[in-house]
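Notes taken during the Thursday session

The instructor put the following on the board and asked us to keep it in front of us for the whole hour. The protein is Zinc ribbon domain-containing protein YjdM. We were told not to look anything up and to reason only from what is written here. First, the residues (112 in total):
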Amino acid sequence: MSELPNCPECDSEFTYEDGILFICPSCGHEWSRADMEAAAEEGMTRDSNGNVLENGDTVVVIKDLKVKGSTTVVKVGTKVKNIRIVDGDHDIDCKIDGIGAMSLKSEFVRKS
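Then, after some discussion, the predicted structure tokens were revealed:
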């Protein structure tokens, strides 16, 4: 027997399946398996090529990036090891050799 998911709206455990939909009798919310997969994928961080990034990955910078408040630049091709995924506009925390700790946007890196 497969385990039915809890309701994403009210977290009720009394959901049931009706055809391709899951229905919550507590709040009346209806959703499909495709909705659940889209919601799970929405939270993923992706690089410039669409690859999913995870904590500990190594990435390469694809564009010269000016460091705010400094005259230094992170050059194209700089390899960044052991990234950490965080919430926010700059969704990668990392430490770059010669520059130090900083945050990057995932759209300016590619997974190596």
